[in-house]
Amino acid sequence: MIILKSPQEIEKIRASGRIVAGAIEELKTRVRPGIRTKELDKIAEEFITKKGGIPAFKGYRGYPNTLCISVNEEIVHGIPSERILKEGDIVGIDLGVLLDSYYGDAAVTLPVGHISDKAKHLLETTEVSLYRAIETAVIGRRVSDISHSIQSCVENAGYSVVREFVGHGIGRSLHEDPPVPNFGEPGKGPQLKEGMVLAIEPMVNAGGYDLEVLENGWTAVTRDRSLSAHFEHTVAITRNGPLILTMI
Ligand code: MF3
Ligand code: CO
After folding, report:
1. Percentage helix, strand, coil, to 5, in the chain?
2. Which among 124, 238, 245, 248 could bridge 14 via Cys, Cβ 3.0 to 4.6 Å?
3. Residue 126 in contact with residue 169, Cβ under 8 Å?
4. Whose CA is nearest to atom 6 of ligand 1?
5. Domains of the chain
6. Per-residue confidence at 173, pLDDT binned at 50, 70, 90?
7. CA distance readout (Å), 139 to 134, 195, 245
8. Residue 104: what pLDDT?
9. Residue 248: predicted pLDDT
């Protein structure tokens, strides 16, 4: 069941999303060769708590941390650790906040120092696919129009879209209906209506789309160990068009 949100509720999600975006901005200034992923997690947790929010992932299905930090061939759900980031890595940072009973959720993939042109192109393509998808999120279109726009953008660039993880509705729960796959034929699935709020999150592999989950039960990596990138925004469908809620 898809829960439509009132303008007041959308404002609450936006308030939560502002904290998400603020934390990401802070992390952008801190990501560099030599930093441990655990340190980034601590920075984010302190930022969120200081703003009155609650880290949304910590404790979710037993997840141990504030951030998911996924490096290089890690797709999503990497667990912060003593790992030290090094020049040339790409680091996916995924972050959710609960504020006043509403969730915001966003992700970016950042370069660590100087990265290869190949890695840069993967990041750019994944981010562009997200913004194309957001442009598609207008009243009257269907969920799979979003999916299709991501898939065509990504595959035209010679990359592949992950199948096992999808975007989602969001509001009083972190994950609500509808699922928002990053692939599929256009014109299918629920019609987009005013008041829908969706977390759109393309996960893009430089090689094949197959993945495996590591022994820790969380970290998804590309099966062929190719690089992977992830970008996400929480977006409201409004009569004035798509509204990105995870912005400062
Ligand atoms: N942003 C991701 C999602 O929307 C991560 C949540 S998984 C968690 O599904 F368990 F780490 F919280
Ligand atoms: Co999400």
Report:
1. 30, 30, 40
2. 245
3. no
4. 57
5. 7-244 (3.90.230.10)
6. very high
7. 12, 9, 17
8. 99
9. 93
Q: What is the pLDDT of residue 84?
A: 99
User: What is the reported pLDDT for 81?
Assistant: 98
What is the pTM for the complete model shown?
Answer: 0.98
3-state DSSP call for residue 197? strand
CA gap 90, 4 in Å, rounded? 36
Ligand 1 pocket mutation pick from 54, 67, 68, 201 by most atoms within 8 angstroms of CB = 68
Q: How far is the CA of 232 from the centre of ligand 2 (A)?
A: 7
| 112 CA to centre of ligand 2 in angstroms | 23
pLDDT of residue 226: 98
pLDDT-based confidence at residue 211 (cuts at 50, 70, 90): very high
Instruction: Give the C-alpha separation, 105 to 156, whole Å.
Output: 27
Atom of ligand 1 nearest to the CA of 170: 4
Query: Ligand 1 centre and the CA of 193: distance in Å?
Result: 24
List ligand 1's pocket residues with C-beta within 6 A: 57, 60-61, 63, 68, 77, 94, 96, 105, 199
Alpha-helix residue ranges (DSSP H) falling in the chain:
7-30, 37-50, 117-136, 143-156
Q: State which of 94, 130, 168 you would mutate to test the pocket of ligand 1, scoring each by most atoms of that ligand within 8 A of its C-beta.
A: 94
Number of H helices, E strands in the chain: 4, 15
